[in-house]
Design brief:
three-stranded antiparallel sheet, 2 helices, mainly beta, 229 residues, six-stranded antiparallel sheet
Length: 229
């Protein structure tokens, strides 16, 4: 990693509700505590209009609450034995069913976009090509702030709610999550990675492979890991 400062843009988003289903638990509606990097890349691709966005990015996320909703599913039988009528199927075996759906409330997301590619995406965020969503189609996300910052390599920084690669720090409060780093445009290939994330944000700690934000008093000293695909 170069010792030179890196210019970047920091974009802050807010979503009233969002749900990030963990695909590693099939048949169970388990909600991740933050959006996977693949979801954030989909958000950026919606802004630029490109099929994929694979630029390096840093991110931090947290929510103010959570809950469980009830959703009605209307699966259509492949053999045509239970066809949908007005968007509904009969409540038979394999038909209409109600399942619990965990969700997060008041979701906050910060994304760091470095270099010229970050400048390109930041311009698109001002006038996005498609609606910005965080996960499901009904989970609208709002861009609340977009400003230039500077990142410098760091041996110590405020870890907070930043998403770090495995081995990025040794904070005991961190949880290890396996999440999708990226998904191909045809949705046939998913790249997985292990990430560290803290539910209770720790303060300044030793870090590895991280940058530190040096500008903007509200985030000065924040650890940022630039994550690839």
């Amino acid at each position: 990693m170069s010792n030179e400062p890196v210019p970047a843009w920091r974009a802050e988003f807010y979503a009233p509700l969002a749900s990030f289903r963990d695909p590693l638990f099939p048949g169970v509606s388990r909600c991740l505590p933050l959006p996977p990097p693949s979801t954030v890349r989909g958000l950026l691709a919606a802004a630029t209009g490109r099929p994929v966005e694979d630029l390096p990015l840093g991110m931090a996320a947290w929510s103010e609450g959570s809950g469980v909703d009830a959703e009605t599913f209307h699966p259509i039988a492949a053999d045509g034995s239970n066809p949908a009528v007005a968007g509904r199927v009969r409540a038979v075996k394999g038909g209409m069913t109600i399942r619990e759906r965990p969700f997060l409330a008041d979701v906050h997301l910060s994304v760091w976009l470095p270099g010229q590619e970050g400048e390109r995406v930041a311009r698109a965020l001002r006038r996005p090509r498609w609606p910005l969503r965080l996960g499901r189609s009904q989970d609208i996300v709002h861009l609340t702030s977009l400003r230039p910052v500077e990142l410098v390599p760091a041996a110590e920084a405020v870890v907070g709610h930043a998403l770090a690669p495995r081995g990025g720090h040794d904070v005991g409060e961190a949880f290890l999550h396996r999440m999708a780093a990226s998904i191909s445009a045809d949705r046939l290939t998913t790249s997985w990675a292990d990430y560290l994330w803290c539910d209770v944000p720790p303060g300044r700690r030793p870090v590895r492979g991280a940058f530190r934000q040096t500008t903007d008093g509200g985030w000065e000293g924040q650890a940022v890991w630039l994550l690839g695909t």
